[in-house]
Design goal:
The radius of gyration is 35 Å and the shape is elongated. The relative contact order is 0.05. The protein is 28% helix and 42% strand. The protein is built from 13 helices and 25 strands.
Length: 590
């Protein structure tokens, strides 16, 4: 009896195994077919699918996904997808993607390998990405990705651009990229070890016709000459905190619709070290450090990638160049309007100029701040106080060669300057509601020299100033007015040196020359401006500044709230006294 019973048990076991095998095979076929069908519904194709019924592993190959402006291809991806006879020990595992290519407009990225650690690419996530009702934009798909890290050892990219008869190709490489703690498409930080790039530009230039042979034959047309130039760039380590990968992708691939368009934090603080740019003429720019506090933006009307592609198609021949140029300016301002807040500080810049004679100059720092809608709590001095744009360059140092041939350089050397250390700042904003251009500061100065600063409010600033029609532009320009203007001069040594230089030329002492110039200012300025109390105050202030150069501040404000324009100037006949009657003038010397 034992043998028949054992035989029955063996047959039962074989039957159960057979049933399990049939079930697993059915699940394998169902899983493979469902993935292919779901991918097709979502606009993707999968060339190869393999589902392992024992451990639930799914391997996909030759994937192609078109998502609006972007095309993504993946050589192979492997992950846990179930159903499995043997349950996996964990829900999320390391997932490796091989031979990934992302094409967004004219830019192509090639990534031989991507490693997701602790990723959300399980069966549910795969199903969501390929579901029939899944969002079809690249940004929305990226927003579904979560992982403890995404590591990409190498990214190679290619960018092709053509405009106005010139084409360029940029190829480059990023190394050791890592996204850490990614949650719904937002990385806690992004790092890369280094980057290199090379841009080759080509422009066809008509060649001069070849001369005749001297036997009465005419010159022969020559073949056009292709001018080829190459610029290169390298950079070191980079870090970006709070990097919203999906939001950055939206800026490039999606435009603002009719609905709400709130500002979004694209990323937080960032740093980039050791950038080197070499131009075709051999000029080399070295930057030690670039940093900023982040980037906040809203979608522009036209996606940035679409904008670049459309601008390439603009005709730039003589008949269309002007219209196309204003089209570019208009679109650039539209893209500018999408920036809510960002800043950049560029430190320790060195520029080597090979021509006409080798020379070098350095810049301490360049600071740029954009705040179209600034947060009142922002304490970063890079931002303009009332919004708009602020750009400053500090301590640009140029050595003055002892054998300088330029007359101005010779004068500076004679005054005792061995080098120039210059700085400038421009800060302003466009007040669209009031049709005003507000210039808070436009200043220029030098170490041991001084500083001159101008502020102003320009009225009647309208979009017609950017019209492609010349007549409309000219009319808008004629309608501009000046509401107020302030000029401040601070002496830090240059005024004294100039007076001493002129005194030496006239064989006089500086004090004697100051007295003479002071008398001229006291009498001459009021005489020229009509003798009003304001003109006398201006003359007296100039005389005090000459006597003891410190600070001279002159302010003028139009009496008419609309400002003082060309029409008002015409009505005065250009007479200084008549002009002065239209403005309030104050002057002070310290």
């Amino acid at each position: 009896m034992a043998r028949p019973r054992a035989k029955a048990i063996l047959l039962s076991a074989v039957s159960l195994a057979a049933l399990a095998g049939v079930g697993a095979l059915g699940a394998k076929v169902t899983t493979e077919r469902s993935l292919v069908a779901a991918a097709a519904r979502a606009g993707a194709t999968i060339g190869k699918v393999a589902a392992n019924p024992l451990n639930g592993r799914i391997t996909l190959g030759d994937i192609r996904l078109a998502t609006g402006a972007a095309i993504i291809t993946i050589g192979q991806v492997s992950t846990i997808g179930g159903p499995a006879l043997i349950a996996p020990a964990f829900a999320a595992e390391d997932v490796t993607l091989e031979n990934v290519t992302v094409t967004v407009g004219p830019i192509r990225y090639d990534m031989p390998r991507m490693v997701f650690t602790g990723s959300s690419l399980d069966r549910a996530s795969l199903a969501a990405l390929f579901a029939a009702n899944a969002p079809d934009t690249l940004a929305n798909r990226l927003a579904k990705i979560s992982a403890s890290s995404v590591v990409i050892p190498e990214v190679k990219y290619e960018f092709n651009f053509s405009f106005d008869g010139e084409s360029s190709q940029t190829i480059g490489t990023y190394t050791n990229i890592a996204f850490r703690d990614v949650v719904n498409g937002v990385a806690a930080n992004y790092t890369q070890a280094s980057a290199t790039s090379s841009t080759t530009s080509r422009r066809d230039k008509p060649a001069s016709p070849s001369p005749g042979k001297g036997d009465g034959s005419t010159s022969q047309p020559a073949e056009p000459v292709t001018e080829v130039t190459t610029a290169t760039g390298t950079s070191g380590s980079m870090r970006i905190d709070a990097f919203d990968i999906a939001a950055m992708t939206r800026l490039y691939t999606e435009g603002a619709g009719a609905g709400p368009n709130p500002p979004v934090k694209i990323h937080g603080p960032y740093t980039l070290a050791n950038m080197v740019i070499t131009n075709p003429n051999g000029t080399k720019v070295t930057i030690a450090d670039i940093s900023g506090d982040g980037f906040v933006a809203r979608l522009s009307k036209i996606p940035l990638m679409s904008l670049m592609e459309s601008l390439q198609k603009l005709p730039m021949d003589e008949a269309h160049k002007q219209e196309s140029s204003f089209k570019i300016l208009t679109e650039a301002l539209s893209a500018w309007d999408s920036i809510v807040a960002t800043s950049a500080t560029i430190k320790n810049v060195k520029v080597d100029l090979p021509e006409p004679a080798h020379s070098t100059f350095t810049v301490g720092d360049v600071v740029v701040g954009i705040g179209n809608n600034p947060n009142p709590q922002q304490a970063n001095p890079a931002y303009p106080a009332q919004g708009g744009l602020r750009v400053s360059m500090n301590n640009a140092v140029f050595a003055l060669p002892a054998d300088a041939e330029n007359d101005f350089a010779k004068r500076l050397i004679a005054m005792g300057y061995k080098d120039l250390s210059l700085s400038f700042t421009i800060e302003g904003r466009l007040n669209e509601a009031g049709k005003e251009l507000v210039i808070n500061e436009f200043s220029f100065g030098g170490k041991d020299m001084g500083k001159a600063a101008v502020s102003a409010v320009i009225g009647n600033v309208t979009p017609d100033l950017l019209s492609s029609e010349e007549a409309v532009r000219n009319a808008a320009g004629m309608a501009l007015t000046v509401k107020n203007l302030a000029v401040t001069v601070n002496n830090a040594g240059l005024a004294d040196k100039l007076l001493a230089e002129e005194a030496a030329k006239q064989n006089k002492s500086p004090d004697t020359l100051k007295t003479e110039y002071g008398m001229i200012a006291t009498v001459g300025v009021p005489s020229f401006l009509g003798g009003s109390p304001e003109s006398k105050a201006l003359g007296a202030a100039v005389a005090r500044f000459i006597a003891k150069p410190g600070q001279l501040a002159v302010k003028a404000a139009a009496k008419d709230a609309a400002g003082f324009g060309l029409a008002d100037y015409g009505a005065t006949g250009g007479q200084p006294a008549a002009i002065l009657e239209q403005i309030n003038l104050t002057a002070e010397a310290k």
